[in-house]
Every structure is written in structure tokens, then in C-alpha cells.
Amino acid sequence: MAGRRDWLLQQMGITQYRLHRPRVLRGEVAVRLRAETRLVIVTSETLSLTPAFMQDVLRTLDLNEHQLLILTERQLSMLPAPVPCALWLLGVPAEKQYAGVQLTTPPLAELIDNSEAKRNLWQQITTYDSHFFSRA
């Protein structure tokens, strides 16, 4: 049906407009990244930065809370593409490569108690050490 309608409109010389961001009409808006944002954490659960493990990660990456943006899994699709800073998918499946620097781990509760998952996170961080540690 849509194909026939498109053809008829074209035959009548009627220009059809397509929305580039149809989610805006549904009340969703793009997530804006501040200039100082260096890491976006996407999680499916409420995230607290107070656990010692989270503080260790932030200290290792030389980041403070003002350089972070914590998003829900739903907000991930509202990020600009490609994501201009590092992205940490914390318990969120990596369906595609969203950013040049992308860390993927299980949820925080599982990560804290799983030495193999922690080792994997540190290996991912060292893979991108030039990104995290090149800033003065």
C-alpha cells in the first residue's frame, strides 16, 4: 500500500518529507554531551559511584564525577552517533560498536564479585590506555 501511495505522490509531483529524527515527535530528545564528558556509563540499573570498586576505576582513569554521564539503556539510542568519548556498557549488551573506545562488562553487582570479569575490564582499559591517559 505504501509503495503505491509513494508512486502516486511522485507521479503528481508531490514532494514527501521524511523525518530524520522521528523519536523527537514521540517526546524523546537527543542526549547532549557536555564538553568535559570523557566517559559515558550506560547501565540497566541504578548506579552508585560510592562503592570502592567504582572509585578505583574512576581513580585509575583519572576521572571525576563531573567528567561522567550516566545513562539508562533506553537513553543509549539517543546519544549522538558516533559517541565522541569513551563508553562503558555496564551490564548492557553490546549490540554494536557505539564509540571508538567501548568497554563492556557485566552488571556492577556481578562485576565486583567476579575476578575474571574485573581482569577483563582492566585488559579493556589497558587496550585503550592512549585514549584515557594522553590528556595532561
Relative strand content: 5-15%
Rounded mean pLDDT is 87
Protein structure class: alpha/beta
Q: Can you tell me the overall shape?
A: elongated
Q: Give the termini separation.
A: 59 Å
Keywords: DNA replication, DNA-directed DNA polymerase, Nucleotidyltransferase, Transferase
Pfam families: DNA_III_psi (PF03603)
Protein name: DNA polymerase III subunit psi
Give the key terms.
4-stranded parallel β-sheet; 5 helices; nucleotidyltransferase; DNA-directed DNA polymerase; alpha/beta; 136 residues
Chain-wise SSE layout:
Blueprint: H1 2-11, E1 39-43, H2 52-60, E2 68-72, E3 86-90, E4 102-105, H3 108-112, H4 115-127, H5 129-133
Parallel strand pairs: 1-2, 1-3, 3-4
Organism: Tatumella terrea
Keywords: DNA replication, DNA-directed DNA polymerase, Nucleotidyltransferase, Transferase
Protein name: DNA polymerase III subunit psi
Task: Describe the structure in your own words.
Pfam families: DNA_III_psi. InterPro entries: DNA_pol_III_psi (IPR004615), DNA_pol_III_psi_sf (IPR036654). Keywords: DNA replication, DNA-directed DNA polymerase, Nucleotidyltransferase, Transferase. It comes from Tatumella terrea. This is DNA polymerase III subunit psi. With 136 residues, the protein is α/β, with parallel strands linked by helices. The chain has helices at residues 2-11, 52-60, 108-112, 115-127, 129-133, and strands at residues 39-43, 68-72, 86-90, 102-105. A 4-stranded parallel beta sheet has the order 2-1-3-4, with helices on one face. It is elongated and about 65 Å long. The relative contact order is 0.15.
